[in-house]
Amino acid sequence: MKINQFGLKKTSLADAKQELQELQFLTGSATDGTALWFEFLQKSLLKVKDESGFIAKLGNFLATETSDLANFYQEKQVLTKKVFYTVALQQLEFFNEIDFNVETLEEDLVKINIPVVEGDFTDPDVLIEAWYLLLNTHTKNGLAFIDKLANQGFYVDKELPKPYFFNGKAQAVFATDKLIREVVYVEAPLDTDLDGNRDLLKLEILRPSETETGLKVPTLFTASPYAQGVNGPAGEALTYDVNVPLERKEPKDTPYEQIRFKGRDETIPAEREVKGESKYATETFTREGSYTLNDYFLARGFAVVYGAAIGTQDSDGIQTCGSVEQTTAMVAYIEWLAGNRRAFTNRIDNIEIKAWWSNGKVAMTGKSYLGTLATACATRQVEGLETIISEAAISDWYQYYRDNGLVIAPGGFPGEDADVLAIETFSKMHNAGDYLHTKDFFNSYLKEMAVLQDRTSGNYNTFWDERNYLPFIKDIKCDVVMVHGLNDWNVKPRQVGDLWDALKDVPVAKKLILHQGQHIYINNMPSLDFHDMMNLWLSHKLYGVENNAKEILPDLLVQNNTKEDTWETFNDWKGMKEKVYYFDKNELSENETNGETTFSDKLPIAQYERYSKNNPLWETEMLTDDAMEGHRYLAKTSELNEELLINGRVKVKVRVASSVDFGMLNFELIDFGTAKRLKPVPDTLALKGLQLGQNWREDNLVEMKLGAPTEYKVITRGHINLQNRENPWKVNDLIAGEFVEVEIDLHPTIYRLVKGHKLGLAIYGTDFAYTVRGNQDIDYTIDFNESRLTLPLD
Q: Which of 366, 501, 564, 569 is most buried by its number of CB atoms within 10 A?
């Protein structure tokens, strides 16, 4: 096990002393390091109150190869660095003879990556520095040692200010059993169901009880269309059949300006007439659909709110999946929290209620659709939104359901589309009486969506331009944290790559964390101090703590794909060097070549049906089996004599001819070589093993581990319709048998290809996991002379 800490704030000895005095660790009674250490230990062993109990607990620790800590204490032995860190590792929940050995302590401290202090540990100043650092060091099982103590009740009997900050981070000094839960209805400047009234949007609020006595707190806002429930069966019923043919498109030179979304000129109903005011809500809730990162901050003096917005249970309007109206609805919540919009205690009485407990500062959190809406709101420059933490977020909905003129499925959801997601999240259907009033209107809207999203051509159009946030990234004024998986083939890596690139010239702070997982959260992985990083960030952004968060947190942090528990910093997501490979019959060559190859997209019907029902089997056989010989081009380099570090967007240039007047190509870049590789789905280390506050909620501890040896690993991929060679809204002509040049950027990645492995490139027609599957009689011919692969390298 290795821990990685990027949220640790370096602190002077004077400041460390002051903070330890505030925590009542440092009382000034001890005159040497050994005595002071035992004072610290006694104050940290919270389950015992007398000397005998203290000695008994000390006996559970190993101090030296031959002595437990109780004997060490009773014999009045002198503290050394080795003894301190032998005990410290045990305090941090590492096990002797499993995680470390006393005999190899120095090596094991380096291996586990424990931050250490050098010096004479009988010197009180050295001991103080070491203890302060230990309190801020992460345990084997998740949070920092100070958080472990807080979970055991360390703060219960201490008179500390609320909020309280230690090492620049908010501490768990708030009683979560006293949280106030209330519901308000925010009035949005919308009428999406056209009933003549502004849409009222339900908002669920959790806030500290201390707000009742004057404390104003910042808010973490999770915009989740899933928060009030989903309609799985309705979505499944609307899901499209993907076993359909690719169709030829009539050439057209559509200029972007022709399809650019220019807004809608709509009249918004007047605001409701306020008929009274109330300080307190009249509605509550029992259990929200929570995000455990938010739960962590509820113990630390932050309010948390969940809003599902238009078209969801107990809210007005209809679901629109990524439209400007959906963004406007989410922005309305922020405006209310900042004191700039109205809310009511219910949907009938028009009794206004204000966010009087809010300090006006908001951060948005959440993954996937939730992070997507955070990005969307950030482009609106809404007052009060100080930062977003967008995880696995969409920046362009076209790139989620389409790609380069093709209909492309989100990984794992073939046949899903914008209208399918709209009905899946239209949780208003759960309230049959409320649904009755919008049923016909919503069904009509779904039919309109089906036409506008255009699954027939797959082209970029006005519908998708409305749902593309990238042109507006330049307008972002709040600081941005992005988290994304390099193996996320649901919200694919290009989504965050394009956002990262678009933010480069925007004068805000931006941080990017790239992990090796799929579509996952990473806040419960003990190898990374994600909680601390976000605590440092949000304590600064929302509470104004001067903790150097922007300077301390790396701009680009990446999980190593070859080792467990290893995270590295990079300067940019763009390599400064290039390496070019040329196509040959079965080889990627470093020298230019001649010749060509032809493969057919048509499979025997039994094989086609087998792959249609088992996409993983198709991919395995495409890359490793003779069953796909003649149905794809697969070339490999010779064994690499040195490591290649790919960083950025791999480019493929192909000169290709289709035997018919339409076609598509799909690409995969592959690491060939038998090796243990990180599994893209984390292993569960302990169910509910991560405690988020004293007697509070828990999360599972998970970690990405090396799996059984595999023969290959897909590094990245890409897709293109041969009739969209220039851009996704212009349709090029394609003449049967005539060669055309196609250039495509694969999804950006950072990947270490180790020495002795081979780099492979697969080019094929139908992608059974992502594209339509027509099993059409199409031959593709690739001209080697004009085809190449360009790698960006660090």
A: 366
